Automatic annotation (TrEMBL):
InterPro entries: MetalloPept_cat_dom_sf, Peptidase_M13, Peptidase_M13_C. This is Metallopeptidase. One of its GO terms (biological process) is protein processing. Belongs to the peptidase M13 family. It comes from Xanthomonas oryzae pv. oryzicola (strain BLS256). GO terms for cellular component: plasma membrane. Residues 7-212 form the Peptidase M13 C-terminal domain. It comes from the Bacteria. GO terms for molecular function: metalloendopeptidase activity. PROSITE patterns: NEPRILYSIN.
Length: 216
């Protein structure tokens, strides 16, 4: 991956997180922006890549990069049960109205979905720790609270357009869910999102507690 590439990756063989210079720019990182934007941007990316070390593939490597099963049977079973619920959640998404029988492959996209959800959770927790340490920063900017700005910038990371035919190819072969679903699915599992935007129980972005998925 070149320095100009706008991407990041986790390497299980070296247990390392890698961030080319290309991603260290808006909307992911802006040195002049408030902390909430940066935690929702590069913070969520860092959390995403770190969580890959504990997804369905990364968990098969230890801290030294050895391909060994280092989890207890109890931990493995609990993880697989939680992961299966996330598979079912994404299987239910049908992102193309013109193709009502085509749905996201929750199994294919599991690793990335785990990383998206875990990464956003970690980044949100980090923002809260920062605001507790610096309460003077917990102020609204442009009419939005820090929590709202965090989630808004996370969603902004996934702006884009994809032709329908290309999306069909991606749904069949890409281990990532469609960008618009990556923007809305993880926050829909987080009560903090509903609180930030004063959502009602029957709003589209609010899942009943029994349907929320937490991996980490």
């Amino acid at each position: 991956m070149t320095p100009q590439t706008v991407n990041a990756y986790y390497d299980p063989s070296t247990n390392s997180l890698n961030f080319p210079a290309g991603i260290l720019q808006p909307p992911f990182f802006d040195a002049s922006a408030d902390d909430a934007l940066n935690y929702g941007g590069i913070g969520a990316v860092i959390g995403h890549e770190a969580t890959h070390g504990f997804d369905d593939e990364g968990r098969q490597f230890d801290s030294a990069g050895n391909n060994v099963d280092w989890w207890t049977p109890q931990d493995r079973k609990a993880f697989e049960q939680r992961a299966e619920r996330l598979v079912q959640q994404f299987d239910a998404y049908m992102p193309l109205p013109s193709h009502p029988t085509v749905h996201v492959n929750g199994k294919l996209s599991l690793g990335e979905n785990i990383a998206d959800l875990g990464g956003l959770d970690v980044a949100y927790d980090a923002l809260q720790a920062d605001l507790r340490a610096h309460p003077e920063r917990a102020v609204a900017i442009d009419g939005y609270s820090p929590d709202q700005r965090f989630f808004l910038n996370y969603a902004r990371n996934w702006r884009g357009q994809t032709r329908e035919q290309q999306q069909l190819v991606y749904l069949a072969s890409d281990p990532h869910a469609p960008d618009n679903l990556r923007a809305i699915a993880p926050p829909s599992n987080m009560p903090s999102f509903a609180t930030a935007f004063s959502c009602k129980a029957d709003d589209a972005m609010v899942r009943p507690e029994k349907d929320r998925v937490v991996i980490w």
